[in-house]
């Protein structure tokens, strides 16, 4: 069973970036998956959003995927 967690997953499919973010419900008062997704999707030239506990997004800049995924660390550090 998953404890407290913030997850950001990304992949490239047919030259497009696909992103999924999740935040466990006990952390959604401090961190929102939709907010993380907006930042990550913007980093890959796209858009995203969703609920406080789960969000989806994507973009067109596959070369920026690593940078987008790295945004999760400062996002969590600032939110906690």
From TrEMBL:
GO terms for molecular function: alanine-tRNA ligase activity; ATP binding; tRNA binding. It comes from the Bacteria. This is Alanine--tRNA ligase. Keywords: Aminoacyl-tRNA synthetase, ATP-binding, Ligase, Nucleotide-binding, Protein biosynthesis, RNA-binding, tRNA-binding. Residues 2-73 form the DHHA1 domain. Belongs to the class-II aminoacyl-tRNA synthetase family. GO terms for biological process: translation. Its EC number is 6.1.1.7. Coiled coil: none annotated. The keyword Aminoacyl-tRNA synthetase applies. InterPro entries: DHHA1_dom.
